[in-house]
Design a protein that fits this description.
Blueprint lengths: L9 E2 L12 E3 L1 H9 L3 H7 L1 E3 L1 E6 L5 E6 L9 E4 L1 H14 L4 E2 L4 E6 L5 E5 L4 E5 L2 E3 L18 E2 L3 E8 L9 E7 L3 E9 L8 E8 L4 H7 L1 H11 L4 H5 L8 E3 L2 E4 L4 E2 L2 E3 L5 E2 L7 H17 L4 H30 L5 H12 L6 H10 L13
The structure holds flavin-adenine dinucleotide.
Length: 382
C-alpha cells in the first residue's frame, strides 16, 4: 500500500505486537514475495534450508512421505522458519517504512460511513478514522467475514495438533528435512528445523503431535509422562526434545478449520490470508498463501482503474491457485490425519511404489512448493 502511494494504518489487537504460532515452512512462492520486498536475505539468514519432507510409519518402518525439492530443479527450496523471525523482519520493515501501527485495537466490526468510506469498530467501543479500503488480515477467526460478498462457511477439522518450539537437537534428525513419524493416520509426530528467532540466538525446532482437540482433556488427565511414553514408543529418537518439555503448558493446542471464502471482497473491504482461506497446515501453505494474496492485492490495485475494478481483479488473480490448494489440502489431510484406516492404507501402498515413478516426484514437489498451477507469472514474480 505504501509502495502504491497510499497511507496505510495497521490496527493490531495486542498491546505490543508479537509473533504468535508455531514455526513454519516458507515455500519458494512465499520466498519470492519476500524477495520482491527486499526482505529475503534477512529471512534466509535466519531460516533453515529444507531439502525434503520425509516420513516413516513407526510400526513397519515403511517410507510414507518422501518429497524432494531438488525434483523441481531451479524453483528453490523450502525454508524452516521461526515464527518470530518472519514476524520480526516484516515488523521492522513496516516500522522502517514509517507505517503507523496502532496497538491494543481489537476489531469487532466495521460500519459504512459517507462517500463509500468504512470505519472500524473496536472492542473498547471506539471507532477508527474513515478508510477507503479495509484490508482484513485478522486470520481465520476474523469477525469481518460476514461483510464479504460471499463469506462461505467454516468447517472445524477433527484433528489439530500440539506444538512447541524447542532447542534443536541434531542427533537422529536431518538438519535440512521436515521429518515425520506416523502410525496409520491416527498418530503423526513432526520435527521441523526452524533456524533462529534473531541473529545470534540458538537454533530451534518446531515439534508437532497430532491431536483431536476433543481428546485434549483426556491427555491432560493422563498426564505428561503417559503422553511422552506414547511419543517415545513411536519415535525413540525424540527423547531429547521430550526432555525439554517440562509440563503440558509448554505445548500449545492448535485447532484447524477448513474455510474457503468464495468471494474475498466486500464493499471497501478485502480479505487476505487466513481470513479468506484457512485449512489444516498439512501442506505448509498458509503463510505463503497470505504472502501471495498480499502481492496479488498490490498488482491488482496498481493496474486498476478504480477500487471496485482492483478488488475484482484481486479475486480473479488468486482464485485458481487458492481453490486448487484448498481442494488438495481437504483431499490429502485424511491420508495423514484421520481415524479411518483406508486413506493411510492407500498412502502406504502408493508412496513407496507409485510416488517414485516420474512424473510423480516432480508433481509432489510442485504441490509442496506451492507451484502447481504456478501463481508466479501472473503476479510478476520469478
Ligand atoms: C500449528 C500450525 C502450523 C502451521 N504451519 C505452517 C507452515 O509450515 N507453513 C505455512 O505457510 N503456514 C503454516 N501454518 C498456517 C499459517 O500459520 C497461517 O496460514 C498464517 O499465519 C496466516 O496468516 P494471516 O496473517 O492471515 O493470519 P494470522 O497469522 O492469524 O495473523 C492475524 C493477525 O491479526 C491480529 N488479529 C486477530 N484478530 C484481531 C482483531 N479482532 N483485532 C485486531 N487484530 C487482530 C493477530 O494478533 C495477528 O497479528 C500453520 C498453522 C498452524 C496453526
Amino acid at each position: 500500500m505504501r509502495r502504491l502511494g497510499h497511507n496505510p494504518v495497521i490496527r493490531e489487537r495486542f498491546e505490543k505486537p508479537r509473533p504468535l504460532g508455531s514455526g513454519l515452512m516458507l515455500q519458494p512462492t512465499g520466498q519470492a514475495v519476500l524477495d520482491d520486498l527486499g526482505l529475503l536475505p534477512k529471512i534466509h539468514a535466519l531460516g533453515a534450508p529444507i531439502e525434503r519432507l520425509y516420513g516413516t510409519d513407526s510400526r513397519t518402518g515403511r517410507v510414507v512421505l518422501d518429497v524432494r525439492y531438488e525434483k523441481l530443479r531451479s524453483f528453490g527450496r523450502g525454508l524452516g522458519l521461526h515464527r518470530g523471525a518472519l514476524f520480526g523482519v516484516l515488523h521492522d520493515a513496516v516500522l522502517a517504512a514509517g507505517i503507523p501501527v496502532r496497538n491494543g485495537n481489537e476489531v469487532i466490526d466495521l460500519t459504512a460511513v459517507a462517500k463509500g468510506k468504512r470505519r472500524l469498530r473496536f472492542m473498547n467501543g471506539e471507532y477508527s478514522e474513515d478508510f477507503d479500503l479495509i484490508v482484513d488480515c485478522l486470520g481465520s477467526a476474523s469477525s469481518l467475514k460476514v461483510h464479504s460478498l460471499a463469506p462461505g462457511r467454516s468447517r472445524p477439522l477433527d484433528y489439530g495438533a500440539l506444538w512447541a518450539t524447542l532447542p534443536w537437537c541434531g542427533q537422529g534428525f536431518e538438519a535440512s528435512a521436515l521429518m515425520q513419524r506416523y502410525q496409520a493416520a491416527r498418530v503423526m509426530i513432526g520435527v521441523l528445523p526452524v533456524g533462529r528467532e534473531g541473529p545470534g540466538t540458538p537454533d530451534r525446532a518446531a515439534f508437532f503431535w497430532s491431536l483431536k482437540p476433543s481428546d485434549y482433556e483426556m491427555l491432560q488427565r493422563n498426564g505428561i509422562d503417559a503422553w511422552k511414553q506414547s511419543v517415545l514408543v513411536n519415535w525413540p529418537e525424540t527423547r531429547p526434545y521430550l526432555e525439554a518439555i517440562k509440563d503440558l503448558e509448554a505445548l500449545t493446542l492448535a485447532r484447524y478449520a477448513h474455510h474457503t471464502m468464495p468471494m474475498p471482497v466486500g464493499e471497501g473491504l478485502v480479505f487476505v490470508g487466513d481470513s479468506a482461506h484457512s485449512t489444516s497446515p498439512q501442506l505448509g501453505q498458509g503463510a505463503n498463501m497470505a504472502l501471495l494474496d498480499a502481492r496479488a492485492l498490490f498488482v491488482a490495485l496498481r493496474d486498476a482503474t478504480d477500487l471496485a475494478d482492483g478488488l475484482g481483479h484481486y479475486a480473479r488473480l488468486r482464485r485458481r491457485h487458492i481453490r486448487l490448494y484448498q481442494a488438495l489440502s481437504a483431499m490429502l489431510t485424511p491420508f495423514y490425519q484421520s481415524d479411518s484406516p483406508i486413506p493411510p492404507m492407500i498412502r502406504d501402498f502408493l508412496v513407496p511404489y507409485i510416488a517414485r515413478i516420474p512424473p510423480a516426484p516432480q508433481v509432489l514437489a510442485a504441490v509442496v512448493a506451492g507451484s502447481l498451477v504456478s501463481p508466479m507469472r501472473k503476479l510478476g514474480l520469478s
